[in-house]
């Protein structure tokens, strides 16, 4: 018996769309390190959503792997954005801090699997991504940054809907809505990453 069918299906939809977008980005990679970072983020999110859907649907013991992968997503988003928007010592410092945060997060999540830590980690990464691309947009009118900032905005909307506990229907709850809104966010991120280049 499937425990949460709508949550499982919307998680799988998020996994399918994000995996497809990752594959499209990979095919046009053109040796851009910034795109590689974001491709890793997309692929990790696709796998996270696949595992999350499996957990919600079949209650298989994959939750720890799911929350550990979330740290990879955060790190890869920040790394890709740092390479696209900064250079020199600032870039190195951001990458070093992102790497240190990843190690601390992974170590912590091995014994703490509450979703609140995933939210904190992802929220801090989105904040850094927003600052980096906001700066790039203000400084040089960076076109990819417009799409990335839109993706951040829609991701925050998705998180707010999930945190609100708002359910449209008993078969379309706040988790399901989060997955569907996050699909839109991933399409926006994709549009930005597809035209992104290294700084």
| Share of helical residues | over 70%
Q: What is the number of E strands?
A: 0
Q: Helix tally?
A: 7
Count the domains: 1
Shape: globular
- Along the chain, the helix and strand elements come as HHHHHHH
Rg is: 16 Å
Sheet having the most strands:
none
State mean pLDDT (0 to 100 scale).
96
**Which structural class should the secondary elements be placed in?**
mainly alpha
**Residue fraction in strands:** under 5%
| End-to-end C-alpha gap | 51 Å
Low-confidence stretches: none
Secondary-structure blueprint:
Blueprint: H1 5-27, H2 33-58, H3 63-85, H4 88-109, H5 115-140, H6 143-164, H7 174-194
Q: Please, could you describe this protein's structure?
A:
- With 199 residues, this protein is mainly α.
- The chain has one domain (5-194).
- It is built from seven helices and no strands.
- It has helices spanning 5-27, 33-58, 63-85, 88-109, 115-140, 143-164, 174-194.
- The protein is globular, with a radius of gyration of 16 Å.
- The N and C termini lie far apart (51 Å).
- 41% of the residues are buried.
- The model has no long low-confidence stretch (mean pLDDT 96).
Keywords:
199 residues, globular, 7 helices, mainly alpha
Q: Concise description?
A:
The chain has 199 residues and is mostly helical. It has one domain (5-194). 82% of the residues lie in helices and 0% in strands.
